[in-house]
Amino acid sequence: MGYLSIFFVSLALALADNHYCSTNKCTKDFIKILKKAESGDTKSQNKVGEMLHFGEGVEKNFSEARGWYLKASESGHAEAANHLGRLYFNGEGVEKDYKEACKWYKVSSERGDKNGRLNYKRCLKSSGT
To answer: Disulfide engineering: 56 pairs with which of 1, 2, 51, 67, CB 3.0-4.6 Å?
Structure first.
């Protein structure tokens, strides 16, 4: 019984240290991925962005998602750039900005992301170029 109590106290302390989880419910998966993201893993940074964007294992938070997507994209992550484009296109956590969306779709496309390429082609068709 003592080990179980220690486990729950340790878990509570770990969650209290994390600003995403101190007021929100978080899954163990989110916490695990967040630790990797905080250590600089770009794939995990993108995944944390997705989890925050879609409310998977943590409460939805578009502006925090944007920050993680930006961090991953600045390190070369193609899918994160596409996600940034989506945020700007839909006005999720940011003001709708079609030009900014297309800029990020282009970055994603240039890095080889299939969805980024499709979204960027739509931008080109819409602008008439």
So the answer is: 51
Does the domain at 2-127 match CATH 1.25.40.10? Answer given as yes
Task: Report the alpha-carbon distance of residue 41 to residue 47 in Å, rounded.
Answer: 10
Over residues 61-71, mean pLDDT: 96
Say what percent of the chain tops pLDDT 70: 78
What pLDDT sits at residue 26?
76
Measure the CA–CA gap between 99 and 128, rounded to whole angstroms: 14
- Nearest residue to 120 via CA among 96, 95, 94, 88: 88
Query: The dihedral of CA 11, 13, 14, 20: what is its sign?
Result: positive
Judged by DSSP in three states, 79 sits in: helix
Kindly list the domain boundaries of the chain, sorted by start residue: 2-127
